[in-house]
Amino acid sequence: MKMVNLNIDxxxxxxxxxxxxxxACRNVNIDIPTLCFLEExxxxxxCRLCLVEVENNSGLHAACVLPCSEGMSVKTNSPAIRETRxxxxxxxxxxxxxxxxxxxxxxxxxxxxxxxxFGITDISFEGEMTxxxxxxxxxxxxxxxxxxxxxxxxxxxxxxxxxxxxIGATDRGFNTKVxxxxxxxxxxxxxxxxxxxxxxxPVGALKEKDDAYKVWNALNDDDKIVVxxxxxxxxxxxxxxxxxxxxxxxxxxxxxxxxxxxxDMVYDTNFAADLTILEEGTELLSxxxxxxxxxxxxxxSPGWVKFCEDYYPDYIDNLSSCKSPxxxxxxxxxxxxxxxxxxxxxxxxVVSVMPCTAKKFESERDEMKINNIKDVxxxxxxxxxxxxIKEAGIDFVNLEKGEYDPVFGDSSGAGAxxxxxxxxxxxxxxTVFELITGRPLDNLEINAVRGLExxxxxxxxxxxxxxxxxxxxxxxxxRKILDKVKNGEKEYHFIEIMGCPGGCITGGGxxxxxxxxxxxxxxxxxxxxxxxxxDRSLNVRTSHENPSIIKIYDTYLGKPNSEKAHELxxxxxxxxxxxxxx
Length: 582
Fold this sequence. Notes:
By secondary structure, the chain is an alpha/beta fold. It contains 18 helices and 19 strands. It is globular. The mean pLDDT is 94.
């Protein structure tokens, strides 16, 4: 690779050809401010905060789009640069709804941080401000364009990372807004509710629909039995909301906190992940042996399922009929648990703590009801439950480690794997291999389906049956794999697709890491390693060996894919109208 030599603030620097000045500065620990920049996703120089001077070049230049050249001399901290950055920042703030104390992003806002960094205590450009209606019709995502700074990061993530593109810039000049075309609500366009736009947003213009009030009301209702379950990805991210290192596994502290808040039972969604493997694995074998529709595609990611219903309805029959794990557990709580305890199911309020905003949409689906009773009554993101723990005055980091309640608190290492891309596939292959051969895999860790490669493939030889599998995460990669299957370029037995890049651990409801890309590799690696470590730490590492799973089949469900199992644990899907006027 050809190297380029330049001088930055009097320091000689050598970088690879094609490197931007912003990258070069960060390589030598010079912090140039940015707002619109999102590495490899949104590099457009729109916010004009990363301006630098270049010797023998007039004007100031946006460092995020300025390539380094041989002999270039750059200044990043002159009086003219500081003053121009400050003016540009004030202009952004002059048309921003500055209700910081009541904003969900207070103290975790990139605009707020920059205002403090530049010592802005007054705005010199007060005047007319745009005023728009808050769009809160979606069950998952709230848009408040009064807080939007037109950085376009959400647009780039939606269109480039997810290849959905339901939001964009409309109108011009002072009237420019970010949102769906024709001023439609995000609820009336084919948004998949993944929440990656929220993760990308540097301010509070996008946030999850807050359901905390529903949960507080249930906890305060003496007539309600309030049950909570936590997804595998939440335990390796919640600690970040309490300033613990990225990837800290706070499962025990989380359980204790939830019990202190007043939940009657605290269960682990990993139990239902194990259940999903038995149901889905049996479904896969049935389709292979009986000429069923192949490839079988996983259905545990509601963002992916809605994407399929909206954009690839020809593949609806390929979807597994399994509900996602948290919906399965909700259904069992209101059937098995209710019957054992002699409780009216309508008195049970099930709360799911999820890394995902699309789960909010999923829980509202009519298909997720039995006898007109919802499987899950409220979904909280990792961010929401963190705010509730803080509101309750709980000293989270100093809590003793608690244990989940039986039976739905018992899980295997395979269940934990659901948190990372490739995890469902790995868990399923562990079980399918043993169900067919009667012996476990020689190596339970299937590295071929791990990691951040967009599409991963693996072939497992199961006593002569070569099961061809693929894994995709993020809808851009889902399109790639589905188009190849459609065109006859690829044939698979089994495909895992996750709606969010990186899977659940970088889901739309997870803690927002400032100034990071939507799928920043270091964040993913740290959280994923915590997931893999939990798998390794457990005595039972395959779903079918979970004693509580064995018990519930023996005493209640009968066998995987039984009539009872289908009644409670399986569902159907629909082809959707992409716009409300179709």
